[in-house]
């Protein structure tokens, strides 16, 4: 079976009526989104984050596959989250200690940062919905680590572009990121994703 046919078979999921009226079930063909994700190598932009407690933060993010992303928050000054390909370092400006570290593989964010992500992988896609304006939400999970949470990725249409994501942890906590600007023509330095370097620069 060709890749396009496999994707259509795996992702022929019913849509929910956005206006509350009964809607005919129709497939969500995300073949083009799958190609977009595999082609998305670098990105930089602004974001608005909604935390599990309802608070919001804004800032700048930089992404470079595989496995690297950096969030710099506008406030509090010095707050950062850096993934270096193996670890995620959370920098608390109020702490005199180094960043708190977590294995990247244990976070749903690792799915977005995968070098070889394929929406056709069996067991990866849990569901997909499309709004009336063409916005598509795709819920994915690591088939080999289903208990580590999931991520809902949001994509705009015409042209296809990443609009944001929601990370849902194994305990059910939700953190949503809305991308307010996106540039995929950047060439970020690898030093941006160096947790040790970022730690040294804080001293």
UniProtKB/TrEMBL annotation:
What UniProt keywords are attached to this protein's entry?
Answer: Lipoprotein, Signal
Which residues does UniProt assign to the signal peptide? 1-25
The record, for CDD domains, names:
LolA
Query: Cross-referenced InterPro entries, in alphabetical order?
Result: LolA/LolB/LppX (IPR029046), OM_lipoprot_carrier_LolA-like (IPR004564)
Superkingdom of the source?
A: Bacteria
Q: Which Pfam families match?
A: LolA
**Cross-referenced Gene3D superfamilies:** Lipoprotein localisation LolA/LolB/LppX
Q: Does the keyword Acyltransferase apply?
A: no
Q: What is the protein named? A: Outer membrane lipoprotein carrier protein LolA
Tell me which species this is from.
Amaricoccus solimangrovi
């Amino acid at each position: 079976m060709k890749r396009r046919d496999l994707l259509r078979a795996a992702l022929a999921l019913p849509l929910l009526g956005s206006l509350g009226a009964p809607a005919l079930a129709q497939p969500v063909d995300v073949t083009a989104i799958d190609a977009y994700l595999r082609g998305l190598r670098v990105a930089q932009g602004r974001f608005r984050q909604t935390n599990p407690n309802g608070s919001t933060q804004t800032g700048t993010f930089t992404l470079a596959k595989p496995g690297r992303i950096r969030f710099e928050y506008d406030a509090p000054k010095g707050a950062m989250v850096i993934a270096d390909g193996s670890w995620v370092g959370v920098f608390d400006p109020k702490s005199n200690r180094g960043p708190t570290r977590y294995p990247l593989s244990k976070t749903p964010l690792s799915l977005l940062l995968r070098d070889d992500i394929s929406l056709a992988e069996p067991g990866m896609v849990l569901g997909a919905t499309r709004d009336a304006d063409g916005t598509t939400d795709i819920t994915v999970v690591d088939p080999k680590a289903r208990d580590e949470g999931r991520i809902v990725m949001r994509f705009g249409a015409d042209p296809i572009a990443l609009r944001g994501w929601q990370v849902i942890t194994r305990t059910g906590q939700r953190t949503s990121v809305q991308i307010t600007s996106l540039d995929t023509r950047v060439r970020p330095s690898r030093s941006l994703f160096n947790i040790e370097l970022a730690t040294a620069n804080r001293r």
